[in-house]
Specification:
The chain has one helix and three strands. With 70 residues, it is an alpha+beta fold.
Length: 70
């Protein structure tokens, strides 16, 4: 039986559009340098008020990925 090890990291994504887009931006950016992404769990949602420029939606999430054996 094969055993697997997973690492969990915390990320914050941002978007001027929505919390969903902010989460997607974080996962897509992580996917550029991390392989075998598994689960993204939303931890916190907030908005940064940017004066006359409007809102910036921010999504904090935990992302797990499988560690590869040598």
């Amino acid at each position: 039986m094969s055993e697997s090890i997973y690492k969990i990291i915390e990320l914050v994504g941002s978007s001027p559009v929505s919390w969903e887009q902010a989460a997607q931006n974080a996962v897509q950016s992580a996917g550029l340098s991390i392989r075998d992404l598994r689960i993204a769990e939303v931890i916190k949602l907030d908005m940064k008020l940017e004066g006359d420029q409007g809102l910036c939606y921010r999504t904090r999430l935990q992302l797990s990925f499988k560690l590869l054996a040598d």
